[in-house]
Design a protein that fits this description.
about 260 residues; alpha/beta; 7 strands
């Protein structure tokens, strides 16, 4: 299916690795021109070159932390009028809430709630004026099923979810949609780092933790980031103009609820 976004400009945050990278690849394969950001130059430029080689689209890179004003300014300078915006940022560290200070919480909110809101604020009016816009926020399955050691993520991402629910019904009349993608366990650096912490706490090997996590999931495996990227591309498509304010859980059946 032609998703109708060839030639559109797509801005993907935190896209050098993991799920952001997968989203950038999927959008590029559909012919969108890509601007990607990340904190590390080496991984970012490597990803950009791989996307160019695989798809032939234009790829611009901005090095910076999207959680900071400077990082946002850098990427918006390269892509000031995106047709597609994929908000993403590295998740805050796991741990015990008793150890977190106000500064710890503010850092989590800056990265996983306030930065996406600032990016939406920068992009949405131009999208409304052009009568096309697709905004996808990469959040987490913890929005629906909180994980105790991921309290920082639980809180910050739930705040973003509430904000999106309030504005997505206003923008859709202008063909501007805002949706959230909620990943469960995908085979990314982020998940592997969580496995290391869990292995240390349990006194077992990382491989034991990984195998246990796979067995716990109804699918019997971890998600492939490419699957997530393709779901993102569909939400950014011309065909998805009637979908807004939704939270799409992609977790291999891990969430046991009906709704």
């Amino acid at each position: 299916m032609d998703l109708g976004i060839r030639g559109k400009s797509a801005l993907v945050c935190a896209a050098s690795k993991g799920l952001g990278r997968a989203c950038a690849f999927s959008l590029a394969r559909e012919g969108a021109n890509i601007t990607i950001s990340a904190r590390g130059r080496e991984a970012l430029e490597a990803t950009a070159q791989e996307i160019r080689a695989a798809t032939g689209v234009e790829v611009k890179t901005a090095v910076g932390d999207i959680a900071t004003e400077a990082g946002r300014a850098a990427v918006l300078a390269l892509c000031p009028h995106p047709d597609i915006l994929v908000n993403n940022a590295g998740g805050p560290p796991p741990g015990d809430f008793r150890d977190w200070t106000r500064d710890t919480w503010i850092a989590a909110l800056d990265a996983n709630m306030l930065a996406p809101i600032e990016m939406i604020r920068a992009a949405v009016d131009g999208m409304i004026e052009r009568k096309f816009g697709r905004i996808v926020n990469i959040t987490s399955s913890t929005v629906k099923a909180p994980i105790e050691i991921l309290g920082l993520s639980n809180g910050a991402r739930a705040g973003l979810t509430g904000f999106v629910a309030g504005i997505a019904r206003k923008t859709v009349a202008h063909n501007v949609t805002i949706n959230n993608l909620l990943p469960g366990p995908f085979d990314t650096d982020r998940l592997r780092s969580n496995f290391v912490l869990l292995a240390k706490n349990r006194g077992v090997s990382v491989d034991v933790v990984r195998q246990d996590r796979m067995r716990q999931n109804p699918s019997g495996r971890l998600g492939d980031p490419a699957e997530f990227g393709d779901a993102c591309a569909y939400l950014c498509s011309a065909q998805a103009g009637y979908v807004t304010g939704q939270n799409f859980l992609i977790d291999g059946g891990g969430y046991p609820g009906t709704f």
